[in-house]
Amino acid sequence: MKLTFTTTSPSLILAAVKELATEAWQQEIVGFLEQWCDDRSFVELKTSGSTGEPKLIQMPKQIMLRSAQMTNAFFGLDESSVALLCLPASYIAGKMMVVRAIAGMYTLVAVKPSSNPFEEVASLKIDFTAITPYQLTHSYKTISSLSITNIIIGGSQVTPAMEGLIRDWPIAIYETFGMTETASHIAVRKLNGADKSEYFRALPGVGLSVDQRGCLEIVAPHLYTGTLVTNDLVELHDPDLFRWLGRYDRVVNSGGVKLFPEQIERKLHDLIELPFFISALPHPALGEQLVLVVEAGELSEEIQKELVASMKNRLGRYELPGRIICIPEFVYSTGNKVLRNETLKKRIGH
Asked: What is the topology classification, in CATH, of domain 251-349?
């Protein structure tokens, strides 16, 4: 489905899309365009939980437009550009792809969201698209042969293994940092090329600081008033540069030592082939005991011993999990994120 926004008013596009929309994913685009074209000044969105418990918020359309304009300016997108929408329009990431096309008055090609949506656009020259790490993992062979200028990746953490896949690509690829409350990303990290970095860089007009917990605070007057306090622990390198450490609500306090699950997971990314995550369970002496949770029916005693030996060579003294827990099937969100708490509850329930 091809949408070309030649005017800042998308009502004509909405009328045309209604004629074409026969599948559920297309109807999601129609539903969002109907919201965008109605008389209300806001769109209702569900937050991801980056700044607290997930909740329904009213996001002003003007803020979404300003965020879109910021992205278009950063990537040099204009009326001649072609962007690809391959994310569900029911989520903020998909909605913002539509808003960026509206704001930039360029062509948006929409395809059915899937693990490898690029198979449908092999003949197109694409200036910009947004995907998830899951999609990158399942479509990197297809992407590498296409004519794409810029790709942004968000929704969950990009692993070192994924970075290795794209290291030498001519396509400029960025990991994004943002949340529903900021109407998409406020910082990007270059993943490949001569200017690749381990740090996220704030987009122009965005101010950064940390609170007493070490969590990121964001000031973006063009998007909202006041300071947005997150639950993301960061290492602030410069006023506009930071390294993401992990989620404050996932930090494990084991015997008085604070441990960051996401950082430990990065060290183990190429050691464990099965899906896994680091978490904690209550412990009578330590308070919390670090555990490795693996998506598997069971691991033999021999394999577990080999795994522990290998982890000892990768991890610091206090980072070694005290237990390995096998769970046959993880609980996943509709966006293919592992729901850690829900997954652990399955084990505890047994």
From this structure: GMP Synthetase; Chain A, domain 3 (3.30.300)
Q: What gap in Å lies between CA 198 and CA 237, rounded to an integer?
A: 11
Domain boundaries of the chain, sorted by first residue: 2-247, 251-349
221, 66 Cβ separation under 8 angstroms: no
Query: Mind listing the pLDDT tens digit for each residue in 226-270?
Result: 899 998 999 999 889 999 998 888 899 888 888 999 999 989 988
Specify whether domain 2-247 bears CATH 3.40.50.12780: yes
Phi, psi of 70, rounded to the nearest 5 degrees: -65, -45
Let me know if 107 is exposed, middle or buried by CB neighbors in 10 A (0-12, 13-18, 19+): buried
- Say which amino acid occupies 268: L
3-state secondary structure of 229: strand
Q: How far apart are CA 97 and CA 93, in angstroms?
A: 7
SS3 318: coil
pTM to 2 decimal places: 0.83
Q: Which of 138, 34, 44, 35 is nearest to 86 (CA)?
A: 138
Give residues with Cβ within 8 angstroms of 273, minimum separation 6: none
Helices within 76-117 (DSSP H only): 92-104
Do the domains 251-349 and 2-247 match in fold?
A: no
Residue 181: phi, psi to the nearest 5? -60, -25
Q: Which whole-number Å values give the CA distances from 148 to 125, 131, 245, 331, in the listed order?
A: 6, 13, 30, 33
